Automatic annotation (TrEMBL), chains A, B:
One of its GO terms (molecular function) is 2-alkenal reductase [NAD(P)H] activity. Transmembrane segments: none annotated. It comes from the Eukaryota. Keywords: Oxidoreductase. CDD domains: double_bond_reductase_like. Residues 24-342 form the Enoyl reductase (ER) domain. This is 2-alkenal reductase (NADP(+)-dependent). Pfam families: ADH_N_2, ADH_zinc_N. It comes from Morella rubra.
Length: 347, 347
């Protein structure tokens, strides 16, 4: 077993060069470096062993040279990529973390990371739930779902709620929050399997495969004959346009992503935006990053739901760092089934 | 002078037939009916002499057969059109109004109206300001500006504020609220005269004629090198798309109209809506109708501003009911200069 101060080998996933459009597997490559398992003297860094990493749609932007990335760091060619993960502290110069702590936050796609920017790290205090959940329902997507549902759109009992990309990391949690609140909940997804998941495992009232619908306006009218009160927006484009036609007065649209629009040269124009004015709709873009102060409140709500099995969470876990690039690339063709996780090590 | 119970002639502006697209003068016609200057026994109606009427962009929709008009009444062919106005009560069966009262609210385009739907009528208690102001700064546009500025977008001192259709009934008030709050304020309008008005009379920091700008994105970058915090949206289309590119993080967009989009077969697609998500923008459609309970609070703020000449208000008054149809139609070519008012009678 590796000990403090040992020089050990460190498998890493590196970015080959800046990417245009969707990343391909060949835009990343594996290499093996070495790492000293000790935080340099006087540093406030934290040295961790990475356990679980996740694949997020936003990571594609970090691979580009040109995108406007206010508040985010870009990847550097021939350096390890990074993202949210769960890790175990091996050594720490930081007063808040000590050897043996489990943490989640931004870490490298490698076996061991020396984390110098520790602002995103949060100590894990509850380990009676799967550790990988801190990459999902108890991590960034969970916080995003919580902020979008309880802070931004705040659907009330009996309201009509629609969620696009509903089987995704955020959508599946929002849908279950909505059901627990007593809303009528419909989700859209991109395959029969995902639709089955929504209806049979996650308890959505209805779900449909958008790829099989020719006229999304008619589809939404079928599922929402009285209109939509709250829409959780994760795709943009044609779906948003159809939703606008079907929104009710005083409706709310909460958006934390528009995945259909990320990789097209010219974004699709949204034609029905006038409905925002006519129907007094509130459309709000948000990010989990503005709600970190609510993390304890969020855990108070979500941990009991998980323990009492009132919320289920679906993960798609691949084994080994070397499976990471394919898993990340798979996000953009909808290959993943639930939260895409890469298990680097189990302990 | 006409007396209670007299049968008098009543000049009226009637809708000829339902209209498609922009109304033309010939879609309306004048006629002279008769009216009995007395409220029928047992009725709770109010009989008024109309003094000032106004032309609102929304009136075009009341002329159409097909538009979805939740909460609004449509005009009836061969009946008088209606809109906001100031009137004097000649007879009343309603406990809240008595002979001699001045009121503002929805009334007919005619010399005398028997108003049976009295919900919109508000008694005028302050007559030391021009009566016609109750069609504008002290009426619906004033309430709209107040709601948009203080309740919806709430710009703070030092923020960067952009207003489209800034010389319009609502825009000119919002701009002055913004200046009084200590914001940096830029407005767009459609003529050199309107731009001069904004800069020289209404105290905007800057203003431009959008018809003379080829690249609205570049224009906005010139006036807002640090971006826009709050946008008051009255036009939609290309302007909104350019604004989205220039919004700052946590920006707010308050919309009570999108006049550029009302009469085109296919609305222009808005391509930059992703910025709402990326920059955590709040875009809110609103109407004065949801804020009537704040009317006394609104008067408390605005009446002193008017009396102390801290706010000026520009009206474009035409004389006589017969000038009404041309004035209304002129709205859609931007012919009016400030709030378009039709003076039917002065007392």
């Amino acid at each position: 077993m590796a000990r403090l101060g040992d020089e050990v080998s460190n498998k890493q996933v590196l970015l080959r060069d800046y990417v245009m459009g969707y990343p391909k597997e060949s835009d990343m490559y594996l290499t093996t470096a070495t790492v000293n398992l000790e935080v340099p003297q006087g540093s406030k860094a934290v040295l961790v062993k990475n356990l679980y990493l996740t694949c997020d749609p936003v990571m594609q932007f970090f691979m580009r040279q040109e995108t406007d990335l206010t508040g985010y760091n870009r990847y550097t060619p021939r350096s390890p990529i990074f993202g949210y993960g769960v890790a175990k502290v091996l050594d720490s110069g930081h007063p808040e973390f000590k050897t043996g702590d489990l943490v989640w936050g931004t870490t490298g796609w490698e076996e061991y990371s020396l984390i110098t920017e520790t602002e995103s790290l949060i100590k894990i205090n509850h380990t009676d739930v799967p550790l990988s959940y801190y990459t999902g329902i108890l991590g960034m997507p969970g916080m995003t779902a919580y902020a979008g549902f309880y802070e931004v759109a705040a659907p009330k009992k009996g309201e009509y709620v629609f969620i696009s990309a509903a089987s995704g990391a955020v959508g599946q949690i929002i849908g279950q929050f909505a059901k627990l609140t007593g809303c009528y909940v419909v989700g859209s997804a991109g395959s029969k399997e995902k639709v089955d998941l929504l209806k049979n495992k996650l308890g959505f009232d209805e779900a449909f495969n958008y790829k099989e619908e020719d006229d999304l306006n008619a589809t939404l009218k079928r599922y929402f004959p009285e209109g939509i009160d709250v829409y959780f927006e994760h795709v943009g484009g044609k779906m948003l346009d159809a939703v606008l036609l079907n929104m009710r007065h005083h409706g709310r649209i909460a958006g934390c992503g528009m995945i259909s629009q990320y990789n097209i040269d010219e974004p699709e124009g949204i034609k029905n935006l006038m409905h925002i004015v006519f129907k007094w709709i509130r459309m709000v873009g948000y990010t989990h990053r503005n709600y970190y102060h609510l993390y304890p409140k969020f855990l108070d709500i979500v941990l009991p739901y998980i323990r009492e099995k009132k919320i289920v969470y679906v993960e798609d876990i691949v084994e080994g760092l070397e499976s990471g690039p394919a898993a990340l690339v798979g996000l953009f063709s909808g290959r993943n089934f639930g939260r895409q996780v890469v298990a680097v090590a189990r302990e």
